[in-house]
Each structure stands twice: as structure tokens, then as C-alpha cells.
């Protein structure tokens, strides 16, 4: 998957946009309660979109040495992302894993960074699952892999149908696990 180039966040423009948004909502951005809000919101979005700056090639470097090709599965990695349609948060957990192949094995924390890299972007859950799977395939060339995301979306619970607490599951499997997934990937 080809990603568009990341454009750095323009803090001044972000702060101006927040001030304009507050005005459009009938609020006074110069009031004592709101005067620092544009700066805080710009900082929030700088943190929230940090995933665009994570270099997956640097993160997914194989560990040295001869490691046994046993399944590696991290369960319930927490994440928070932002729905690109409503700029509303969705949060949940990811279970990702692979059976090492030609690309070797990476450190466990690197798998968490892969989840964060894609969660910390404007996102939809289905694309996020696909991006994680594609990153594992491209960098590790595993014999098998799995990605399972379960999240609750505030765009569904706070607007529209206003139905809170409904988890959405997205599961992708490949290689040897497509036909016979290990327990954490069985739905």
C-alpha cells in the first residue's frame, strides 16, 4: 500500500482553525476559559497524528541470531485512533501475530509500534487492520500472520444511531493461519 506523503502539522494554522471553529459555534475564543484552547487543541492533534511520522522500516528490523520459528502473538494491545469521517475517537485492542518466515523475528515492542503507527492517524478500522497486515507481510515475510482489531466507535455511540458499547471486530489472516488460525484469532 502506498501512503501519501506526511505533511507536517502547521501549528499556527491549526490554532487559527480552532479559534474560527469556536467562533462558528457561538463561543468567544478570547474568553478566559477558552483563550488557551486553540493551543491545547493543536498540541492534542500533533500527538494524535504522530503515527504518520513512524518509520516502519526502521521499527521492523530483524533481531540478530538464530531464533526458533515459533508463533509470536501479542494479545490485547490497547489503541486509540480517530475516525477520519467524523474526527471522533475509536478505541479498543489489537491482537497481532505471526509465524516467522524469511524476514526473521522482531522485538515484541516493535509489534506494538506497528499498531501505534497506524492508530495514530486519521483512520477507519478496516484500513487500519489491512495496513498492519501489509506491514507484517512486507517487512517480515512470515509463514503465517493474523490481525484482529476490536474497537468501540464514538461516531456510532455519540451521534447517528447513538448506540454505545457496540464492539466492531476486524480480523485478517494469511499464510498457514488462513485455514487453521491459532486460538487468539478464532472468531
What do you see in this structure?
With 187 residues, this protein is an alpha+beta fold. The chain folds into 2 domains: 38 residues, no CATH class; 124 residues, 2-Layer Sandwich (GTP Cyclohydrolase I, domain 2). Helix content is 33%, strand content 24%. It contains 6 helices and 5 strands; from the N terminus they run αααββαβαβαβ. A hairpin with a 5-residue loop joins strand 1 and strand 2. Helix 1 packs across helix 2 and helix 4 packs antiparallel against helix 5. The chain is elongated. The mean pLDDT is 93.
Briefly characterize the structure.
By secondary structure, this protein is of the alpha+beta class.
Query: What percentage of the residues does DSSP assign to strands (E)?
Result: 15-25%
Detail the poorly predicted runs: none
Count the E strands: 5
Strand order of the largest sheet: 3-1-2-4-5
Q: What is the N-to-C order of secondary-structure elements (H for helix, E for strand)?
A: HHHEEHEHEHE
For the record, the CATH class of the largest domain is Alpha Beta
